[in-house]
């Protein structure tokens, strides 16, 4: 239970928390705390929908399994491709962002950031290749340390809080809370990633609801606590800073702030990748089991098994994407937005499946309906990057049709020949 909660929390938290408080404050001023609170409320129906679906269909396929039950295997293959093949782009970018934070905090440059990113990626793949028990224990330790560090940072800085920093509360008007919320949105994503781990729980119907509730509580305390403390302590400096957490730590612990910031950045980055890889590895094996990927990838799809072949393919694809991105000088933001378009599409598909599968006219069903509409609007804002999920959907349809035609096409009979009198029945 504790390891499951740690994996869930790790999937939601990310390195963005190091910079997003200042970006939201720049957009909406102190009223940005409302954006944090609104997104937390929105998380409830999303998390509840996925918890209910995972409890009914605990499988390594996660959202792809929900879609299969609701709309068939071809739709499931498309959703599975969105998540599985977006990860080799998302994981290296996440690792590099974390590497940049660590390198900057320690006075390093681009070379050091790349080395740190490679080390973080290697560690994340390594812990998952050993097994979910190991990666879960590592995640539990990391999330525990992370929560303690963030809480200590807030508590040590609170003596410098000034109520006057909350005024004017909405310098750009209350409508500015909307754009601030859109900036903060990706700090609340990740519920789709952990649906692939549902089959690992001893009693999914009981455990998933409790783990989801605990995750929401932990996220609420950390996010709201950090947002409010940043506004109260940093005041006008918050919107002008690229590293608000470093400023907050400097208020509380002084010269040791750089080392603590580097540690937080490394833990946040590793925790996110660890949780996503744990889900993606199982998804790849489940897709192969269901005929959407080559059969040799299916090994490890059962609960308790380790999908090492699927993880190995993800590692190779991540290396290829990284080399190509470095060779062509790809924009970091564009790569992340392309991956995000796929992850948002997965969330929308899961919620739409929930509208069909969950008991109608119940609170969780209404929550799925509202969340599906909101997430659909968010997906539309992906713009040109919608080409990526569309292309992956086409690839999934092509592969499943080709495989079906090879499997079910009648074997051509040999051309008739004259009977040989030397051959008798049974010879």
What features would you describe in this structure?
The protein is mainly α and 427 residues long. It has a single domain, classed as Amino acid/polyamine transporter I (Up-down Bundle), CATH 1.20.1740. The chain is built from 16 helices and no strands.
Low-confidence parts? 408-427
Major sheet description: none
Give the helix tally: 16
Task: Assess the beta-strand content as a share of residues.
Answer: under 5%
Number of strands: 0
CATH architecture: Up-down Bundle
Under CATH at level 1, the class stands as Mainly Alpha
Give the number of domains. 1
* Helicity, as a percent range: over 70%
Please report the distance between the alpha carbons of the first and last residues: 64 Å
Could you write a compact summary of the structure shown?
By secondary structure, the chain is mainly α. It is built from 16 helices and no strands.
Provide tags for this entry:
Amino acid/polyamine transporter I, 72% helix, disordered C terminus, 0% strand, globular, 427 residues, mainly alpha
